[in-house]
Amino acid sequence: MAINGFLFASILISCLAATCYGITFSSLQRTLDVTASPQSGQVLKAGEDNITVTWSVNTSFPAGTDSSYKTVKVKLCYAPISQKDRGWRKTVDIMKKDKTCQHLIVSRPYTSSNNTITYTVKRDVPTATYFIRAYVFNAAAEEVGYGQTTDAHKTTNLFSVDAVSGRHVSLDIASVCFSAFSIVSLFGFFFLEKRKSKALAAK
Ligand SMILES: *[C@@H]1O[C@H](CO)[C@@H](O)[C@H](O)[C@H]1NC(C)=O
Ligand SMILES: *[C@@H]1O[C@H](CO)[C@@H](O)[C@H](O)[C@H]1NC(C)=O
C-alpha cells in the first residue's frame, strides 16, 4: 500500500514537473533572431510567391548557447486574428498540443551560419494572417529554443496568404460531382442491361 502511494506520488510529481506533457512554449528561451522577406501587411499568393527566411542566434546570448542545437524547423504560424473561433488553430502552451504553427517551411540540421532559405508558399496553405517562427531541437528531438518574426504578443510584422482562388475550388467541386454522376449512371445502365438480358433469356 505504502509503495503504491509512493509510486503514485512520484508519478504525480514528475507530471507536475512537466515531463508528463513534455516541453512547454513558455519554458523556451527566445535565442534566435528570425527575419523574413514579407513586408508587414503584404499579401502573398499561395503557389506563386516566395518567402526568404534568415535566422541566427541572438548575439546577446553567450557563445556556446547553440552547442546542443541539432535540428531547426521553420514554420508558418497563424496570427491571433486567424485563430479566433478556430479551435483547430489554437495556441496551447504544451508544445505537443499547440496548433499555432502548422505549415512547415523547412526542417534541416542546425548550423551556426548560412541560415537562409527561400520557400515558395505551398498551394495548400489556407488564406489567413501569419508570422514565421523557428524552433531549434536537441539530439533528443526536444525543443530547446525559438525565434520569430513578430513580437511576444504576435501583433507586429504580420503578413497574409491568399490561397488558391474560389473559382478553382468550385471548378474542382463541379468536376468531382460530374465524375460521381458518370460512375453512378454507368452502373445504372449496366444494371438495366443485365435485367433486360435476363428478362429476354427467361422468355
Ligand atoms: C519564386 O521562386 C521560384 C523558384 O525559384 C521562381 O520560379 C518564381 O518565379 C518565384 N516567384 C516570384 C513571384 O518571384
Ligand atoms: C536579442 O535579445 C535581446 C535580449 O533578449 C533583445 O533585447 C534584442 O531585441 C534581441 N535582438 C534581436 C535582433 O531580436
Draw up the topology in text.
Layout: H1 2-16, E1 32-36, E2 43-45, E3 50-57, E4 71-78, E5 101-109, E6 116-120, E7 128-137, E8 143-148, E9 159-162, H2 166-202
Parallel strand pairs: 2-9
Antiparallel strand pairs: 1-3, 3-6, 4-5, 4-7, 7-8, 7-9
One 2-acetamido-2-deoxy-beta-D-glucopyranose binds next to loops.
Explained architecture:
- 19% of the residues are buried.
- The termini are far apart.
- Strand 7 and strand 8 (143-148) form a beta hairpin.
- Helices cover 26% and strands 29% of the residues.
- The chain has a domain at 23-162: Sandwich (Immunoglobulin-like).
- The chain has helices spanning 2-16, 166-202, and strands at residues 32-36, 43-45, 50-57, 71-78, 101-109, 116-120, 128-137, 143-148, 159-162.
- The strands form 2 sheets. Strands 2, 4, 5, 7, 8 and 9 form a 6-stranded mixed sheet that branches.
- The chain is an alpha+beta fold and 203 residues long.
- It has 2 helices and 9 strands; from the N terminus they run H-E-E-E-E-E-E-E-E-E-H.
- It binds 2-acetamido-2-deoxy-beta-D-glucopyranose (2 copies).
- One 2-acetamido-2-deoxy-beta-D-glucopyranose (NAG) binds at residues 33, 58, 60.
Beta-strand proportion: 25-35%
Name the overall outline. Answer: extended
Which molecules are bound besides the chains? 2-acetamido-2-deoxy-beta-D-glucopyranose
Structural class by helix and strand composition: alpha+beta
Total beta strands: 9
State the CATH architecture of one domain.
Sandwich
Number of helices: 2
Q: Please, what is the CATH homologous superfamily of one domain?
A: Macroglobulin (MG2) domain
Briefly note the CATH topology name of one domain. Answer: Immunoglobulin-like
Order of helices and strands: HEEEEEEEEEH
**Rg to the nearest angstrom?**
26 Å
